[in-house]
Amino acid sequence: MSPPVVLTIAGSDSGGGAGIQADLKTIEAGGAFGTSAITSVTAQNTRGVHGSHLLPIEEIEAQIDAVLEDFDVAAVKTGMLATEGVIETVRKYADRLPNLVVDPVMVAASGDRLLEPDAEAAYEELIAESTLVTPNADEAAVLTGVDPDDEGEAREVGERLVEMGADAALVKGGHIPIPEVTDVLVTDDGIRTIRHPRVDTEATHGSGCTLSSAIATRLAHGDDLPAAVESGIDLLSRAIRYNLDVGDGPGAVHHMVETRDRAAREGTAETVEGVVRALVERDVTPVVDEAGLAVVGATPYAEGEHDVAAVEGRIAKTLSGLRPNRGVRFGASSRVAEMLLDAREERPVLSFACRCRYGSRVAAALDELDWPTLTLGHDADLTRVEGAFGTKTVALVDLRTNSTVVFAERAATLRERVVTLAEAVE
């Protein structure tokens, strides 16, 4: 194995959610080898920064020298630099720091200041040496004098940062008060806007560190800048959605979320295959119509249909009994996968679902079983179950498609529920 090497120059977070700790977790999760030069040691947790100790400049230089002398560094990211002296020190190394991503850390997510006021002006020269600078709205206001409140002002900030000499600027939209998180990437070639849903959580500790590290890691792998940025934003969006409930504060982002999810894909597909075999063996024909039976399973940190395994072509009735048309693959289902993902917005523990038929006999069986059921009428405007799915809902009846979707946390539970429904219909 010969992974690309990424160097992070940043402060240490004893709480593990941000700083050097977050950087190294993210770099390793992205398939690169993480090296570091620590600028400051902070006493920090999910509730705030309780103390900070700046390392002597010569010790910071010694760390950078040690890494550069021994490793073929492919990308570098900076985080907490704290003082004008440290910023100037890093700038002196700039010609030896490829794919330099500058995260101009000034204030922690908790609101604690991480940069001396006198050091703010020093960032301009370092930004001029950067491949990419990644300010949030507050940092953008300090660096450019423009406090972005909308997409247009974010573009203006990015353009000013590129005028300072940065190859590109990513103005992060997390702190900009608009409904969707809107990140704006400005380069000499143009402007690219990346939008994604805003997650209602305060567990964003380490978000800036994670994003800049993820981008640097993709650059180290050879991705072009727009692709690296989009990949980093996708990772951060999922890391915030599936944040970690640790500490007494708001929590931290999930740095390893994509790695954990990738690791679960094969097992998820095999589990769906097992459910399919069991339903075929138990012959659940009474709940199968001409559209067939659809069985789906989501990975633990699923974000879209591409993270949901399903029977391609569904399970159909044949003269010799039930048979799956094809094998199981990710992205093979759209409607049932979407319903499962929407249900997970209310109950994240749900992982499996099965689409069955609906009719008078199924309706009677559902009444007999007394399952908590959500019904979408013929004229329902709802195309999503998000917001309407109860904490105990077992099944969703969609009168528009004459279908019943059964949900479960575990594969075994889904199998038994579908079998039970089929037996009640007979």
UniProtKB/TrEMBL annotation:
One of its GO terms (biological process) is thiamine biosynthetic process. Residues 13-254 form the Pyridoxamine kinase/Phosphomethylpyrimidine kinase domain. GO terms for molecular function: ATP binding; hydroxymethylpyrimidine kinase activity; phosphomethylpyrimidine kinase activity. It holds the Pfam family Phos_pyr_kin. Residues 272-385 form the Thiamine-phosphate synthase ThiN domain. It comes from the Archaea. Keywords: ATP-binding, Kinase, Nucleotide-binding, Transferase. One of its GO terms (cellular component) is cytosol. This is Hydroxymethylpyrimidine/phosphomethylpyrimidine kinase.
